[in-house]
């Protein structure tokens, strides 16, 4: 991990991938080349091919400082009208990108055609229900999971007829904002949510009880931090990483989750983190909140995650809390707050509040 180096073709300040502050970032699962996608504050989606070479118009002028230099080729689309908070490449279709936005909608972008269609919006078109997360389970290409800034979690069947939000289940999981959620990669009925109410909670979607608006999935367990928890990320080994405003990254080990029966509950000691890493998470108003993001399919089987560092680095840790690397380099002038691994390759991309990109390979 320490051997990764910044993309040599362009400096980070030349890689303005979105017009505004980056909130969401990801790399396409293809292993042929790094394809980086970034969503910004105003609903723009920037796309860059990390294999392109810096060029001048005249090859003979490559060493001439006055030569007509061409910057990197960046594609910008605008699928949303407000902040793109999260997006996910479909596990079932390499050409589909699902994005969730503060404009209350989830859109599906066809990467081959460059066309985005709305796949979910609230039934009442005037309702303002900003979304904070979106995921499609690897078991079911038709079901969309999402979370909202007012503490709700939704399950939506995209095959439902056009009366918007038929086939929709909504659960009020928290009184406050859900900053992020993930499904367990191997057991997608297990959901981890992180909330402004300072808790990490695990839910089991196989068992839903209650009536009407009070219906809830079974609560497996919860762990409370001193301050708000910004994101909860599952990895395939059954570990959950959270970053909290109490300046820690916590790793919880639920590797026995494959044996849990519906309605299984965990005691407080079982919910305690197995590793607590001190980490400055005080982003303030102008830097996007730091989130720990796992590499989905590490080639060597070592579970690891990356997270932005307020001193203009990206930190990489193992599931045991050991630091593997601190990625930096020349020309990084802002905090690379939104950091993400490629699902299987050892490539790390990170975005800043000015829409600039850092890419380590």
What would your notes on this structure say?
1% of the residues lie in helices and 43% in strands. The mean pLDDT is 94. The termini are close together. It contains 1 helix and 29 strands. The chain has one helix spanning 268-271; strands at residues 22-27, 35-40, 45-49, 55-56, 69-70, 74-77, 84-89, 96-101, 106-110, 115-120, 131-136, 143-148, 152-157, 168-172, 178-183, 190-195, 199-209, 216-224, 229-234, 239-244, 248-253, 275-278, 293-294, 304-309, 313-318, 323-327, 338-341, 348-351, 357-360. It has one domain: YVTN repeat-like/Quinoprotein amine dehydrogenase (Methylamine Dehydrogenase, Chain H, 7 Propeller), CATH 2.130.10. It has 361 residues and is mostly beta strands. Keywords: DNA damage, DNA-binding, Repeat, WD repeat. Belongs to the WD repeat DDB2/WDR76 family.
């Amino acid at each position: 991990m320490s051997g990764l180096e910044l993309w040599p073709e362009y400096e980070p300040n030349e890689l303005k991938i979105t017009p505004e502050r980056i909130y969401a970032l990801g790399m396409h699962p293809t292993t042929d080349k790094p394809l980086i996608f970034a969503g910004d504050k105003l609903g723009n989606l920037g796309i860059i091919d990390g294999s392109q070479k810096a060029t001048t118009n005249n090859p003979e002028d490559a060493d001439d400082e006055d030569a007509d230099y061409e910057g990197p080729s960046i594609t910008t689309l605008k699928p949303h009208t407000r902040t793109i908070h999260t997006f996910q490449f479909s596990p079932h279709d390499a050409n589909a990108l699902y994005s969730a936005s503060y404009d209350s909608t989830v859109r599906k972008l066809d990467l081959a055609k460059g066309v985005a269609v709305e796949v979910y919006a609230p039934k009442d078109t005037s309702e303002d229900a900003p979304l904070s997360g979106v995921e499609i389970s690897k078991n079911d290409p038709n079901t969309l999971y999402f979370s909202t800034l007012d503490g709700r979690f939704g399950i939506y069947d995209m095959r439902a007829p056009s009366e918007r939000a038929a086939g929709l289940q909504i659960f009020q999981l928290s009184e406050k904002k859900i900053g992020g959620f993930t499904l367990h990669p191997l057991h997608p009925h297990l959901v981890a949510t992180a909330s402004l109410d300072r808790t990490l909670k695990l839910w089991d979607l196989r068992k839903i009880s209650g009536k009407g608006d009070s219906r809830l999935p079974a609560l497996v367990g919860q762990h409370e931090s001193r301050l708000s928890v910004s994101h909860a990320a599952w990895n395939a080994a059954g570990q959950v990483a959270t970053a909290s405003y109490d300046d820690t990254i916590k790793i919880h080990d639920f590797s026995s989750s494959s044996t849990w029966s519906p309605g299984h509950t965990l005691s407080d000691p079982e919910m305690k983190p197995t590793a607590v890493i001190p980490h400055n998470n005080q982003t303030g108003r102008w830097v996007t909140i730091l989130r720990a993001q796992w590499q989905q399919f590490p080639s060597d089987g070592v579970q690891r995650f990356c997270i932005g560092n307020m001193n203009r680095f990206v930190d990489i840790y193992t599931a045991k809390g050991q630091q593997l690397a601190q990625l930096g380099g020349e020309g990084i002038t802002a905090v690379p707050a939104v950091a993400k691994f490629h699902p299987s390759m050892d490539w790390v991309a990170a975005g800043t509040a000015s829409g600039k990109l850092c890419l380590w390979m």
